[in-house]
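Quick one, T. Sequence first:
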Amino acid sequence: MAALDGLPPLREVIATHGLSAKKALGQNFLLDLNLTAKIARQAGDLTACDVLEIGPGPGGLTRGLLASGARRVLAVEKDARCLPALEEVAAHWPGRLTVLNADALEVDPLAHLTPPIRVVANLPYNVGTELLVRWLTPSAWPPVWSSLTLMFQREVADRIVARPGSKAYGRLALLAQWRCEARIVLTLPPEAFTPPPKISSAVVHLTALPEPRFPADPQVLSRLTAAGFNQRRKMLRAALKGVHPRMEALLEEAGIDPTRRAETLSLEEFCRLARVVADAG
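Structure tokens:
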């Protein structure tokens, strides 16, 4: 039975092209086209946007994005086995899908996209967090993208939206929430995928803020959060001593008790400390 977009069902596509998921590439294929369409809808109105998709695999989410009216989709796929299936999708939507056979960590998608740009992807598990950090830490803000709608393992999604004091709270939460509005918009059980991963997955929608919530030097803030959470069981005066020789005094200047731990500091407190450290030189 053909799918609603007139292309074959994904199970048929996978069988035709011999596309068994490769663990080494972090692949878990989502075969339910109703679910891929639902994920595409979480990205909002795409009719006036170019969309970057990483790891399209057999093209389920790609089809959802195009059916949702995306102006243009750039799909970056490392696995050359998937290219024939994606070429069939491109032929079905003439002029609206460009496929790059490349490593997402090495390609410059801006050469192929025109703003406004949204990123929508069922990210390969093995590069998902690294890509997110790159998107959250560009040299200039606001970024070239207006929103990110990304699927992660549920534990990673929880880390992105975590609040101070929680076990999941850490550097990823601070990086995301400093410059974005972040929320979990969808959860999916393991059995939604082929092959089923060991844990649930979740879709996180991040909307870029016009400017960060609190002023801070990005590099100083990054150093503080990395040092603080690398040794999260230590008091701040010990965990952060490598950042500045006068750290204990700077903590007190920022109004932060040096015996606290990183996981107890709010985003506002980290940014305040970053300003004090930057001023101290």
